[in-house]
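agent> fetching stored inputs for the adenosine-5'-diphosphate docking request
agent> found them:
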Amino acid sequence: MTSLPCEFELIERYFRPLAKAFPGAYGLNDDAAVIAPLPDQELVAKTDALVAGVHFLPDDPAELVARKALRVNLSDLAAKGAAPRAYMLDLMLPSTVTEEWIAKFVYGLAQDQERYGVHLIGGDTNMTPGPLTVAVMAFGDIERGRMIRRSTAARGDAVFVTGTIGDAALGLEVLHGRAPNLGASVANVLIDRYRLPQPRVVLGRRLLGLASAAIDVSDGLLADLRHVCEASNVSAVIETVRVPLSAAARAAIGADPRRIATVLTGGDDYEILFAAPPSVAGVLAELSEEVRVPITAIGRMEAAPIGSKAQVTMLDESGKPLALRREGWTHF
Ligand code: ADP
Ligand code: MG
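agent> prediction call returned; pasting tokens
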């Protein structure tokens, strides 16, 4: 096991190559980076930190930790309609981290930089007595004033979601040994979705002008829908039978129907949940075909009850409201 080179060598050897194609990063040789604004556009900024033992398992592959750290941030930019451009990276490393770990971590970043067209432009590296922590701050471009907000859903809008819901949360159950009855192929599909989110970057951009409000699903479908409803002061009614499920999730629910609660509240989906007028449903269907990502209507927005908070109602297949004990992931 090799110990870690000094901070300067780490930057030189591992991080500088990730910054070489972005002029404003100045080869990571300055105190700060410059992001030149594009004409008539503004920057959307987002940061999310992953903590070992909280957001990933301490022995998860370094490459996947890196890609997840970047991708959860790209997912937020996608939900806002922004095109990702650059990111910064703050690393808090416990003394147990090896150079091999860093090399794999950087390899993971390089793969996703290529895939999503983003560049590392700076960061900070520290040792910590605490758990390994990876914080990314991502920046994206958007036409001035056009960022898709949480607060602008209207009653009468339909509620849509991209991709499939619940796979990652079920994958975490598998990793925790709470789903021993699932076959290996189902288990692996679910674990993959937990470890490596698929941010809807191309699709998110195309929602500009179609979505009236959007959020990325990270805390859980129910909790994130509630965030939109409260910000927009509308109520939502969701038909849970319409919530899109992968074949693996169907198999997991088939083995134990109580897992529907995990699907609806579990989180880590990194799909886009959005509201849009029903009149754009046809355009959305074409868009879904074009970008090869499912877009599914799951319910509708209604007027919030006068004098009380926005409600989120999940209906079962017979139209009865479901009582779900846990609303979604919260840290505190
Ligand atoms: P400072 O002394 O101002 O904190 P540092 O020595 O931490 O500067 O960083 C030197 C350069 O290396 C800066 O350009 C910084 O952005 C970059 N850098 C440091 N750590 C990282 C990292 N983990 N990822 C990307 N760039 C980094
Ligand atoms: Mg520093």
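agent> quick read of the result: Residues 11, 15, 28, 30-31, 89, 91, 120, 122-125 surround adenosine-5'-diphosphate (ligand 1) (CB under 6 Å).
agent> awaiting further instructions
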